[in-house]
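Input record (one chain):
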Amino acid sequence: MPACAQADPPAPAPAATTPDAAIAPVPAPPPPALSPELEATLLDQVQQPAAHLRAAIDALEKDVDAAKDSDTGLSLQRVEIEALLSGADLFLESLQPRYQAINAQIQRLGPLPGSDAPAESKPILAERLRLNALSAEIDGAVKSTGLVQYRARELLSRVQEYRASIFTTQLLRRTGSPLSPTTWQDVASELPKASSDLHWIAWRWWRSAKENWAALIGVVAGAFLLYFVLALVRGRILSGRLPPTGDIDLTYFERAATAGWVAPLFALPASAAAVAITVGLDSMGLTFLGTDRLAVTALPAVLVFIAVAALARAILQPSRARWRLVNLADAPASSLTRAVTLIGAVYAIDFVLKEIIRVLALPLPVSVVAAFLASVLLAALLLKIVRTRFEPLYSAPAGDAETGLPDTPPQHPAQISWLSPLLLKLPLLAVAGFILATSLLGYVALGRFVAGLVIVTSSVIVLVILLHLAIRALAGDGSPAAKALGGVVHDRLGLDANQGRSISHATVLILNALLALLALPLVLLTWGFTLADTLSWLKALIFGFEIGQVRISLAQIAIALVLFIALLTVTRLLQRWLSSTVLMPPRVDQGIANSIHTAVGYAGFALAVLAALAYGGLDITNFAIVAGALSVGIGFGLQSIVNNFVSGLILLVERPVKVGDLVSVNGHSGRVRNIAVRSTEIETFDKASLIVPNSELITSTVTNWTHRNALARVHIKAGASYKSDPEFVYAVLQKVASECPLILQKPVPDVSFDNFGANGFEFSLSAVVADVGKGGGAQTDLRMRIVKAFRAAGIEMPHPQHDVHLRDLDMVRDLLARVAQERAKTAEKTVDSADLPKARAAAKP
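The corresponding structure, as predicted from the sequence alone:
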């Protein structure tokens, strides 16, 4: 609250009565009271909601302490606490703009006048007091609500601790051994009562169903009709898309991607029929008493069974070997399919039986026996999978099994160990042994939990992997012949290959993120978390959670990424449209077109980044603060990069060097091909790419042969002997220049008599060509014409002449004679006297 709210208003001037009265202090009048309307507004919009939140958190704390031994009660309390947190957030959001508006009005009133300043008028003073009271009330409500949120989060942590303790206690609680005869006697004694209760529930349900028998028959018939129609459509699709035989070799990725969409297709008919029957019975009012709980339990169990069976069929493909995802023969593939399907059936039946036991309120021994039987059956089926020999369909090496069908015959089954592959069968064997051991020792809850965890979690993971592989097929990663999303984008939108691949990869990334968000609740449910907890965490993950003072929302981040990709795509499309219409070379210079194209790309990218950051919840002003803090580091560490970047912007705006210009820099010549952010690419005449930093093109001397136009002057040197007539040579060169079609006649070619050379007269021919790139061809043509013209006119072209003078030849002859004598003496010493004449003859020069 501003300090002016607590200052007393200035006292009015005293009345001029007596001297004593004139100097006596006059007390300040009390501040005006708030109007009834203002008090009602504060009560309704600020005080009452804050009071309700405080009362609600007090009640929830008492309820949590009362329900700390009940997991169901704690789950309900968690939902109420989260609802309280959501209401507190909405209340704070509603107060924020009002609080800012009131503070803005207080600032408009300015500070209280000082003691020497004139007093404020009563209306202004009353308005100031009213606004200060409102600001104080709202500030108090904000602080009170923040305290409520803190208490609610602490209460959520306490609820989670209570539930974790209950879960651990129930999971590790040891019951009576299922092998004890007493346990089975207790179960046998309870069976008549359970049968009677089930009979009564079934009789009540059937009596209600007979009243709507026509609608019931319609629901059942409709569900069966839906199943058969979808099964017929599924058969048509599978027979057309997945023929059992064929000559096409399929890669592993193609088979995996196929399994990704075949698995949901296998599950669709039965799932649709089960949902139709459940919805139909509920709409008819046939889910009452205990049947409503059974229906709510039976539908997920049936869907889990259908999903497990569909995944097994899609991966193992018992009747379509060439589409099988794993290298297994037909016999083990069929055996594994049956075993996995039975595992799903046992899990679903156990799930329903557990709810029936709760509905009938049967004693603990019945639940123990049911869990023990289900665990033993699941362990036996896992052992069956372990005992199945994984005979390969094709005996190819490990590296070739994914690409085609080898010609070698299948391996003999005796060569395959029943534990192969160890990475799969050893964990299954350990899980089966753990389930049996815990069940036999009396920890039936732990055994049932591990069994369900293995089944459902494995199914979810396999399904997610298959869907991920199917999503990857959009990018064309599996087969070169696959029509990727990038190719579709290239054909429909006209983008180049790189842009199409970028869009396809971004789309695949978004779809994988959505798949992860869908898979996370399923995995959490399989690990024993309730649906309310899972949805609560998923909601917090998607719509925002706080880490310290930072709030992170995956939904905002995802939308920000989509916004960035969309704006970037629009920028690329705009660039492509400009390049193909407005910036075509006949209309606009190539350098100007490149500058506009690059500037549009930079502007679009910057706009996409700013829009994505702003929508993602990041305050752009914070980046300005960070940029100011890092400016010193950037100035020293990234000085050259910033220099080149700014130089690139100068090149695009000032355009001393443009794309297509012929330039010479640092002793290298070539044409400018691209001006990027950091450097410029120059293609030399040797077809090599010269990468020059932009700062060198700005700070150093650059020769631009085509800066203003493409005109260039060529110079040809020519010589004539001293016997020639210089005026005649001059006329011949002028005639040659006038007849050459590769040079311009305006300006007129220039012929000059340069010098008296060492070998003859020296002349120069200068002319202008229209295109600097054709200067070499023009020089060659001029030289050839000069040679022909000189020869036709009889003009001799001088060549270098040199006089060679040899001195002191007598001294050289004496030196050679002296060397010959020395050789003769050496030969006489090394040969016999009989060979002396030959040696002397050989020593003669």
